[in-house]
Fold HTH cro/C1-type domain-containing protein.
Amino acid sequence: MKYTMGHLLSLVRAAMGLSQDGLADRLHISKSIISRYETGDRKLSKVRFEGICRELGLSKKLVELLIADSVSPKNTDIARELGLILLTRLSSSQVKS
């Protein structure tokens, strides 16, 4: 399954336990921009997605797994699931800190 950058943003945001408002506040942009990215009403480039992930403290390797450009189609979903598991653990450890 091929995800759009907006869908990946939605998955990352949810895995980190952030609302659209919370993510918008953290990125210093409006909630409507986040919403438009996620719904596909506004194009979210790979470069912008990577920048957002960097702002959220995600590693480059994890972002590469999420995007999975170089992963063969049969392994793409596995790479994304791994990424989401790691995001969930990251989110949990940040809450405990």
Observations:
- The two ends are 35 Å apart (CA to CA).
- The helical segments are 5-15, 20-27, 31-39, 46-55, 60-67, 73-96.
- Residues 5-96 form a domain with the 434 Repressor (Amino-terminal Domain) fold (CATH 1.10.260.40).
